[in-house]
Amino acid sequence: MYYCLASSESIQCNGNMHYMQFDPENTGYISTEKFRNLLQRYGSELDPHKLEVLLALADNNSEGKICYQDFVNLMSNKRSNSFRQAILQGNRRLCSKALLEETGLSLSQRLIRHVAYETLPREIDRKWYYDSYTCCPPPWFMIAITIVEVAFFLYNGVVLDRFVLQVTHPLYLKNSLLYHPQLRAQAWRYLTYIFMHAGIEHLGLNVVLQLVVGVPLEMVHGAARIGFVYIAGVLAGSLAVSIADMTAPVVGSSGGVYALVSAHLANIVMNWSGMKCQFKLLRVAVALICMSFEFGRAVWLRFYPSAYPPCPHPSFVAHLGGVAVGITLGVVILRNYEQRLQDQSLWWIFSSMYVVFVLFAIFWNIFAYSLLDLKLPPPP
Predict the structure, then answer these.
(1) Residue 90 pLDDT > 50, yes or no?
(2) What is the pLDDT of residues 286-342, one digit of tens each?
(3) Of 180, 202, 264, 319, which one is the catalytic site residue?
């Protein structure tokens, strides 16, 4: 089974031929002694950090045996939770020097190392990411969503002949992308409102936060996971407004941005000793100040006299919906680098809570507005 350790493909091609040699009883395990002999024999074909991880796995395993599937998952960059526990619960410390101490790295290697230290709290994960990252695919989601948001803002700026506080223009609400309580039956508005921003001051801070935080997170966790957190925050933001601020429209990508930033900050705080990014206290403070400033701007704008009464300015509640997603679903994702989320009980708990919230919001939007007999602003 372990005839060649260079890649998961070679394992699967040559594995069945040699498996019975190491596991004659077909138990799915081989002894750590045989496992270590194989590493010593074929270790030169591995990335040095992967070899170090495998040696840690062999030394830390108290049961004297290694699961074949854990090994295959490891070589395929799909590490199981049991594999992580086998290393983290062991007594052996990784013997080689920290990734930060390595010298002679190229510019791209230093960038990958920097991203690893920015986002991952465990040295073993940082080394694994450093060896595994290929920049294929690149962090396309956050870059693409940012380009589209900027393009829509510039287009609206030209059409409205206004770039600062666009939301005060009489024609602003006529756009078919933003969320409006009178048009809540148009389901796409619960997501497309992210392409409309109140002004350049609103767009600027959101773009900076989602690029500075979102791109490194996507490089580590992938577009699927980070995109899920972002879109979940966006949807939670508009649904939260439809429940808690029922007469207000919604614009801006703050729901998604706050989901990512809140998840990242919560992950840093929860793994404070393990996070080795420079000036982390100062940077957390700066991030919180920026978020507070943007949230304060949104609150001020919400209660600022509207230029087109009786319709109020956009709501700030979407920010809170994004934060709620970030500190629940987002934290679970960021804390489980390269792990199967379906194996995490918290993932199912928070996912169920999110689904219940979405279903509740749907029924609320269908029935509550008529039952409460609200006086909604006229449709644009």
Answers:
(1) no
(2) 889 989 999 999 999 898 887 667 778 899 999 999 999 999 999 999 988 877 888
(3) 319
Domain with 208, as residue range(s), is: 140-372
Decide if 7 is catalytic.
no
| 305 within some domain | yes
Return the pLDDT at 93: 43
Rounded to the nearest 5°, which phi and psi values hold at 64?
75, 20
Q: How far is CA 190 from the centre of its chain?
A: 20
**In the predicted model, is pLDDT for residue 34 greater than 80?**
no
- b/e 123-156 (16+ beta carbons within 10 angstroms → b): bbbbbbbbbebeeeeebebbeebbeebeebbeeb
159 lies in some domain: yes
Report the distance separating Cα 205 and Cα 208, nearest Å.
5
Q: How many domains does the chain have?
A: 1
> Does the residue 57 lie in any domain?
no
In the structure encoding, which two tokens stand for residue 224, read together? 């699927």
CATH number at residue 246: 1.20.1540.10
Q: Active-site residue 319, yes or no? A: yes
Amino acid 224: pLDDT = 94
Say how far apart CA 262 and CA 323 lie, in whole Å: 6
Among the listed residues 80, 242, 253, 254, the single catalytic one is 254
Question: Using 50, 70 and 90 to split pLDDT, how confident is the model at 53?
Answer: low
CB 147 within 8 A of CB 231: no
Q: Residue 277: pLDDT band by 50, 70, 90 thresholds?
A: confident
Domain-located, residue 100: no
